[in-house]
From TrEMBL:
GO terms for cellular component: cytosol. It is an enzyme of class 2 (transferase). Belongs to the methyltransferase superfamily. RNA methyltransferase RsmG family. The gene is rsmG. One of its GO terms (molecular function) is rRNA (guanine-N7-)-methyltransferase activity. InterPro entries: rRNA_ssu_MeTfrase_G (IPR003682), SAM-dependent_MTases_sf (IPR029063). S-adenosyl-L-methionine binds at residues 86, 91, 137-138, 152. This is Ribosomal RNA small subunit methyltransferase G. The keyword S-adenosyl-L-methionine applies. SUPFAM superfamilies: S-adenosyl-L-methionine-dependent methyltransferases. Residues 1-21 are annotated as: Disordered. It comes from the Bacteria. Its EC number is 2.1.1.-. It is found in: Cytoplasm.
Length: 230
């Protein structure tokens, strides 16, 4: 037990998550804390077993995965339809749904075992604003019109824009979690953005807790009616 009275999450190699039990987490997540904490516990207990995270990831779930996912939330609308493409373990979609309870969040994931996991998470956390869709993004062109589409670790920005723009309404947002090369990726995607009529491309440093590396978030706005892939 640590000073908070809680045992830290422990990975197979015996390492523990340095943020487990940190009181700043509950403050940071606010009203979403019960759902996020339960999601974290499910990842600790089942994530590696179900092939969602690697054996060393348990020791860095808070910083590398949950706080990283939360960094995208300030760039998402408070309400409307938010689509998480390639949701995988539910990152960032589950965290976004917990922190944006007035939004309708659609988790898009093509793999059956992962959609089964996502359904389990939705049931366990009690999130009522989430729909799980087993599909590839390109299969939903015309079936979804989102106010924002988000993604994490899906593809380079040029490809990601081609996948996500058809799902976004005119004036809606593409919001991508990226690493430190985000600016280079955005520059490389300039021609694709022009073709898709994406405007206002920007890279934002999104801090979470003091002392942690910031997350990079890329945003772009879909222009008028001609944003389909050609």
């Amino acid at each position: 037990m640590d000073e908070t009275g809680r045992a830290p999450a422990t990975a197979d190699d015996g390492s523990s998550d340095p943020l487990e039990g940190d009181p700043r987490l509950q403050v940071f997540f606010g009203e979403a804390w019960p759902q996020v904490e339960r999601f974290h516990r499910m990842l600790v207990e089942q994530g590696e077993l179900r092939g969602l995270i690697g054996p060393r990831e348990v020791a860095r779930l808070w910083e590398r995965h949950l706080l990283n996912s939360a960094a995208v939330v300030p760039f998402l609308p408070d309400a409307g339809v938010i689509v998480d493409v390639g949701s995988g373990a539910g990152l960032p979609g589950i965290v976004a749904a917990a922190m944006r309870p007035a939004a309708d969040v659609v988790l898009v994931e093509p793999m059956e075992r992962r959609t089964a996991w996502l359904e389990d998470v939705v049931a366990e956390t009690g999130l009522t604003n989430v729909t799980v869709r087993r599909a590839r993004a390109q299969e939903l062109d015309g079936a979804i019109e989102a106010d924002a589409v988000t993604a994490r670790a899906v593809a380079a920005l040029d490809k990601l824009f081609r996948l996500t723009v058809p799902l976004v309404r005119p004036g809606g947002l593409v919001v991508a979690l990226k690493g430190s090369r985000a600016r280079d990726e955005l520059a490389s995607a300039a021609a694709v953005m022009r073709r898709l009529r994406l405007t206002d491309g920007a890279v934002h440093e999104a801090p979470t807790l003091a002392g942690l590396e910031p997350t990079y978030v890329v945003t772009a706005v879909r222009g008028g009616s001609g944003g389909g892939v050609r």
